Amino acid sequence: MNHVTKNKFPEEVYPISLEWIVKRGNLDVSSAEVPIQNLEDVSFSLSLNPKSGKDEDQATINFRLKSSLDFDITVNAIISCQSAAFCHPWTNTFKKDDERKCQNIRLCFSDEFLDPASKFFVDNQMTIGLKGTLKVETGNNETEAKEFKPDILGHILWESEKDKDLVIYVGDEELKVGLCFDVL
How far is it, in rounded angstroms, from Cα 66 to Cα 134? Predict the structure, then answer.
């Protein structure tokens, strides 16, 4: 017998990570596009903008999402530069209808960015780390769940008493288990 159950939050979550090395002599640069494992048609990249903002006085990292999915996608991540003791957690929901899928993360003021005291660059290179999750909100809030049927092999083996070799006792509860299971 089948019945329909409602999920409160229909979503799929995928891990994302990137370690990106930027050379000091090439600051107008983007990382390679990183595909999301097990999720077709979705990828992300980072780009560096050493002079952004209204007065071009901000150094930013830009997270760009590329997706052909017709779902909202939420990114929950931390961008870091360990040498500069920079660690910035952020969350952004990219709406399915939004053409521009970009999030800017401020690093510092532009004049601080290249200052050796800030330690963004060590040995003429900067390492930017990104770790987090990408959540696809499918919008589908109905899934089918099947009830157990007695003819399903796992259920038959679970209920069977004849092949139980060991009893595990925890308090007043007991669990009978088989020690050997042959796989064909």
Answer: 12
For the four alpha carbons of 103, 105, 106 and 107, in that order, the dihedral sign comes to: negative
Q: Which residues contact 164 (CB under 8 A, 6 or more apart)?
A: 176, 177, 178
Residue 156 DSSP class: H
How many domains, in total, are found in the chain? 1
> Is 178 inside any structural domain?
no
Q: Is residue 20 part of a domain?
A: yes
Ranges assigned E (strand) in 82-165: 86-94, 102-109, 125-137, 142-146
Domain that holds residue 108: 5-137
pTM above 0.85, yes or no: no
For residue 94, what is the domain's CATH number?
A: 2.60.210.10
| Tokens representing residue 50 in the block | 């050493």
Is residue 94 situated within a structural domain? yes
Residues of the chain with pLDDT under 70: 1-10, 139-163, 165, 178-184
